[in-house]
Amino acid sequence: MTPFPARAAAAARILVAGDIMLDRYWFGEVDRISPEAPVPVVRVARREDRLGGAANVARNIVALGASVGLLGVVGADEAGARVRALAREAGVRDHLVVDAEGMDTTLKMRVLGRQQQLLRVDFEQGPGARALDALDTGLADVLADYDLLVLSDYAKGALSRVEPMIRAARERGIPVLVDPKGHRYPRYRGANLVTPNRSEMQDAVGRWDSEDDLTRRAQALRRELDLEALLITRSEQGMTLYTAEGRRHVDAQAHEVFDVSGAGDTVLATLAVARAAGLDWFDAMTWANRAGGIVVGKLGTSIVTAEELTS
């Protein structure tokens, strides 16, 4: 494996744009069933907030040693203020737009008993037109300060105008990496790399019946969207990369899987840092595969540091 380019990574400047979330965890003990309903009673002992979605991608990029800016929309609420505070604490440059017209910051609240998730409650509402206008302006203002653009799409609305974002970056010669959502893949035309997971790839091209069939479908999609590379993350089956040179595959790292929350964010962040630091797509995929194998052994949305990655 090509060594991880830590020195070059430290000079990389990466902009992450997309759907911002706050992941909130309530940890406690369960020792009885509620007399009101047949559900466990959790006595909360600890609370923790973590950056989620595109913000988790940015946090992982910092952990790998690169400089990062974060562009997205939050609400004028407690969760939005918490996202901004956590981003500053993590060393993420804040380009966030505050939607004061009633948007709620996307919040995923998880209740855990004895390290097992018992309940998740989601609060979310998409950004308004004025916030999206401000997002477009923000991208135009800061894009020239960065070497690479990462688009993290969770279908919460921040990337509803993704096409001009990709065009703006490509016009400046800035590579674009996209973590997609949904089945409307023509939206991502012109990006350098798109990274669907197995389920998302099926949404895009339908079910395949063999590896050869998947290769034909993947290469057809790559050419249709004018991509340099298409990378499918396949959980226990590893990762498969398709470029004009052909198909390359790496098997999954043999780690115990504890929690897959945010694993795609870590993979995307590692791809971005490795690529910005000068590695080719295959070597970037190899390091991203290693990072993904590490992060699934951690609880909740987590990071992988450069030290963990290279040890």
TrEMBL record:
Q: Which residues form a coiled coil?
A: none
Against Gene3D superfamilies, the record matches this protein to: 3.40.1190.20
Keywords per UniProt: Kinase, Transferase
* Kinase as UniProt keyword: yes
Residue span(s) of domain Carbohydrate kinase PfkB: 13-303
What InterPro entries does its record include?
Answer: Carboh/pur_kinase_PfkB_CS, PfkB_dom, RfaE_dom_I, Ribokinase-like
The family database entries (Pfam families) matched by this protein are listed as: PfkB (PF00294)
Show the CDD domains listed in the entry. RfaE_like (cd01172)
One GO molecular function term of this record is: kinase activity
> Does the record bear Transferase in its keywords?
yes
Task: Name the chain's protein.
Answer: D-glycero-beta-D-manno-heptose-7-phosphate kinase
- Which lineage do the record's taxonomy fields give for this organism? Bacteria, Pseudomonadati, Pseudomonadota, Betaproteobacteria, Burkholderiales
